[in-house]
Write a structure and sequence with these properties.
Elements lengths: L1 H26 L6 E7 L6 H4 L9 H7 L1 E7 L7 H10 L3 H4 L5 E4 L4 E4 L22 H4 L16 H9 L5 E5 L2 H8 L4 E6 L4 E3 L10 H8 L10 E2 L31 E2 L8 H6 L3 H17 L8 E7 L1 H9 L4 H24 L5 E6 L8 H6 L5 E2 L9 H10 L6 E5 L2 E4 L1 H6 L4 H12 L5 E6 H5 L7 H8 L9 E5 L3 E2 L2 E2 L2 E2 L9 H4 E7 L6 E3 L3 E2 L3 H9 L18
Length: 566
């Protein structure tokens, strides 16, 4: 049976590469003028269909009708967070190779947490950084410098390979509300712009530019941001058409002062310190991102000539709305309907300016998202919140103290999903680091809600079970950045407190509700079809580059998707 499986997959890969090469021969003579890669943050695969009532013809439905639709696409790494997923989409590599193992990891040399795209050598260009008093995104708040760059990404990206292959005339951009959403996809060779909540405008860093082009100031002068002052987020369609119309105020939704948990949501005055935050917690964040991207396309002449350009647009509102209200909420439902409208707006503009017949469109997501335990319990599904502090009240801490002379203090930092041990203390006590790792992992695994905990020493030696979850943890392991122990929670156990912010829903697990994402390819030569076999997000980058005929990104782990070339 094993030999048959090996032969089958070997034949499949060989056929895929052959068909990919055939596709390349067809497309490189007339490559697309634009590669448009759309990433929707926290768009779990089922949500597109779940909230489809009221969609128009030009957004999701256009892609579903005209594209190769992969209904069983998954991230195959364990830590399904924003930077991990975005960089995997951009590189076709596992985090063990591209290096972005978490939104935050612990920098042992500096003795502090490290935010994935921070870089003190490249400060923001003419802008202030994160306002830590008003920033609710705990990962951005943890950054120790305002500078930003892609230099922590250890491999090339699709955008890098496009810039290399097509030369200096290829235009490469990444746009998002989130810095990590823009930077990861723009790669090393492109230019990234993201929305600064503290500035109320799109910014970049000195890694990319020495000065802002005039068009960015002109875009800001249009006053689109300020126009939301004194207005409300209201339902975009008749209330009776919504599945969650009668469930607008669920007890687990996060109550942010001034924002509320029921419609309408007031944006408030422009001088409210949370005004720009409220924009990102609503469809307004995506609307601003799409409008900025359209202006960029117009002024920078993206897709205007025969040289292939690349534009990534990462849409963040679905993630923020999901965290605050949960994916099963009236807010998430309306956000998806408005997202559909923004996709239609964007695709219509691309069609008028470049021609969709000249554009390769890829839509996917950096990760899915879990339901709130309270919501799951309404369905009879047991779910709970995990508290890492529970270690202090279990016999495990005393057992560690009995074994090593030190107990809970062995744990220096917990940056989910990684536990970092105090290596200085271990050395001072004359302890064997590998033995301590294994012992702490064993005690963590005894905690309620922990499926298993894996030590880095076991991962380095490949001493992990041959299961899909264990392998996903191994794919997430980078020896210089990963912690000493990787903690996998049981299905439907969540960390509901993100550094002081209690959220309605979270993500970050290897379970299917976090790994399962939409994937659609649409463009020249791609036939409309539905594919139900399991594919992986590491396959996206090699599919794009093979379609274009460029080099593969340097760390590619996946293979081209054969259906794109049929």
């Amino acid at each position: 049976m094993l030999q048959q499986s090996v032969k089958f997959y070997s034949a499949l890969i060989a056929a895929g590469l052959a068909m990919a090469n055939a596709g390349t021969a067809q497309t490189t003579s007339s490559p697309p003028r634009l590669v448009l890669q759309i990433t929707v943050d926290q768009l779990r695969a089922d949500l597109i269909a779940r909230y489809s009532q009221g969609y128009g013809d030009g957004g999701f439905n256009y892609l579903l009708r005209n594209g190769a639709v992969y209904q069983n696409a998954h991230h195959r790494h364990a830590n399904t967070e924003t930077i991990v997923g975005h960089t995997t989409l951009a590189t076709g590599a596992d985090p063990a190779i591209h290096g972005m193992v978490a939104n935050l990891w612990y920098d042992r040399k500096a003795g502090r947490q490290y935010y994935n795209v921070q870089d003190e050598e490249f400060p923001l260009l003419g802008a202030h950084g994160v306002d830590k008093d008003d920033e609710i995104d705990p990962t951005q708040r943890a950054a120790t410098t305002d500078g930003r760059s892609p230099r922590a990404i250890l491999t090339t990206t699709v955008s890098d390979e496009i810039a290399d292959f097509f030369g200096p005339d290829a235009k490469v951009f990444g746009v998002s509300v989130k810095d990590r959403g823009a930077i990861s996809m723009a790669g090393h060779a492109g230019t990234a712009y993201w929305f600064s909540k503290s500035e109320g405008r799109f910014v970049t860093s000195t890694y990319y530019r020495d000065a802002y082009p005039d068009w960015i100031g002109a875009w800001q002068d249009k006053g689109l941001v300020e126009a939301y002052a004194g207005t409300q987020w209201t339902l975009s369609q008749p209330a009776e058409t919504y599945r969650f119309a009668d469930l607008d105020d669920q007890p687990w939704e996060t109550e942010l002062p001034g924002w509320g948990t029921v419609f309408p949501h007031e944006y408030g005055p422009a001088d409210n310190p949370y005004f720009t935050t409220f924009l990102t917690l609503s469809p307004a964040g995506d609307a601003l991102t799409v409008d900025f991207a359209k202006t960029l396309m117009d002024v920078e002449q993206v897709g205007a000539d025969e040289v292939t350009d690349y534009l990534s647009i990462s849409l963040s509102s679905t993630d923020y709305v999901g965290h605050i209200f949960g994916p099963s909420s009236l807010e998430s439902e309306d956000n998806l309907k408005q997202l559909d409208g923004q996709l239609a707006n964007l695709l219509s503009y691309v069609d008028a300016r470049v021609g969709l017949r000249n554009t390769l469109v890829i839509l996917s997501a950096d990760h899915g998202g879990a339901e709130n335990p309270g919501y799951l319990e309404t369905l009879g599904i047991e779910a709970q919140m995990f508290s890492f502090d529970s270690l202090d009240t279990t016999p495990g801490a005393q057992r560690l103290k009995d074994a090593f002379g030190v107990g809970r203090e062995l744990i220096q930092n917990f940056s989910a999903p990684y536990v970092y041990l105090d290596q200085t203390l271990i050395a001072e006590q004359g302890l064997d680091a590998d033995e301590v790792e294994r012992a702490v992992a064993q005690e963590l695994q005894q905690l309620p809600g922990v499926a298993f905990a894996v030590s880095s020493s076991a991962l380095r030696r490949g001493q992990v079970a041959d299961t899909s979850i264990s392998q996903s943890v191994l794919r997430n392991f980078h020896p210089d950045r990963s912690g000493d122990i990787y903690v996998v929670f049981e299905p439907h156990w969540f960390i509901g407190d993100l550094d002081g912010l209690s959220v309605a829903a979270a993500h970050g697990s290897p379970w299917s509700y976090d790994s399962h994402v939409p994937l659609i390819f649409a463009g020249p030569g791609i036939k409309a079809k539905t594919v139900v076999r399991r594919v992986e997000t590491v396959d996206i980058a090699p599919t794009i580059t093979t379609y274009l005929g460029t080099k593969l990104p340097s760390g590619v782990s996946g293979v081209p998707l054969v259906e794109v070339f049929e």
